[in-house]
Amino acid sequence: MKIAIGCDHIVTPIKDQIKEYLISKGHKVFDCGTYNKIKTHYPLYGYEVGRLVANKKADCGVVMCGTGVGITNSCNKVKGVRCALVRDLATAKAAKREWNANVIGFGGMISGVDSIKRMVDGFLNEKYNGSHQHCIEMIDNAIPQDNSKNIKMFDSICKDWENGKYTKKTKQQKVPRPKTWKEFSKI
Amino acid sequence: MTIGVVSDFKNIKTKHYLIKKLKKEGFNVKNISTFPCAKNCLINECKQLMKAFQNKKVDRAIVLDDYGVGSFMYLSKFPHMVVAEISDEHSAIMTTGHNNSNVITLATKVITKEQIVNISKYFLKSKFEGGRHFSRLDMLDEISKEGWK
Fold it and tell me: Residue B142 is nearest to which of A69, A83, A154, comparing CB atoms?
């Protein structure tokens, strides 16, 4: 499978371990970032995973941040994404089996890496059983306009961040942009 | 602060238990429901919650369903909604502190009703830290603006 993966700077080492795990299982992995410990923002990478999944460049996605809440919300705000935030195998399987989740999310500060590997496997191996079709339609139609194609939308806020607007005028390092922007510049 | 509590039909009993316990703690709690259409689907119950948020009848909310998944997927689609599908106390505290979450979705097939009450209390008693976290909330708003042009 083609899997998009994303995280924020709090859990980069965990994301890297999961990425290597997925590659070892034979999957093609698109690493949407981030890539190091430079302070950055989960919406950049959550949106990018959502963009690739919604536009069918990836079959599914895996996202994580501290609790997993920020990055999964970023992903779910993309039309066409059905992301679940999970902490146990039963929920990871149910998200796919009953709700046809196409992205799975984790709290890297909540779940250990071995547990995350098991939940990722559970999610990938489960099949959607046709449940909740009417509800899933309402989820898919909740956002009126396709918002899955604009990689420039965060430019202004990133600039403000780097200039210290959110950090009491203390300038910040340039935020790493998703490397997948190069391969998937136009979708 | 008014707290909305929502559930699907199967989990009405746990909803009433949670409402009773939160009221006992002094919270101002509102039962959000499409009653008497009590067998309405989960997403229609969540639609009622969105109406309550939009009409400023509730400030924060707790949603109960089997796995917390469906309600999370739907509610997090909306502008200004930050939804936490969680099952532990640390997440309840941190998601309020860093994400300014306004909804948690809790899984009745995963955690006991006592733990549902416990996690809800941590969620409701925690405070948003602001500061650098506003940058992320502003970015979430940008994603939503594109979807609601």
Answer: A154
**B 1-40 near A (Cβ less than 8 A):** none
Tell me: the pLDDT tens digits for A46-74? 999 999 999 999 999 999 999 999 999 99
**Which ipTM value was assigned to this complex?**
0.97
Q: Judge: A73–B90 Cβ closer than 8 Å, yes or no.
A: no
Query: Is the CB of A41 less than 8 angstroms away from the CB of B148?
Result: no
Confidence at A87, pLDDT banded by 50, 70, 90: very high
CA-wise closest residue to A78 among A98, A90, A61, A66: A61
Instruction: Dig out the tokens for A166 from the structure.
Output: 């959110």
pLDDT at B37: 59
Q: Edge-to-edge, what's the strand order for the sheet holding B60-65?
A: B28-31, B2-7, B60-65, B103-107, B83-85
Option in B67, B86, B134 nearest A95 (CB): B67
3-class SS shares of chain B: helix, strand, coil, % to 5: 50, 15, 35
Cα gap A145→A80, rounded to integer Å: 10
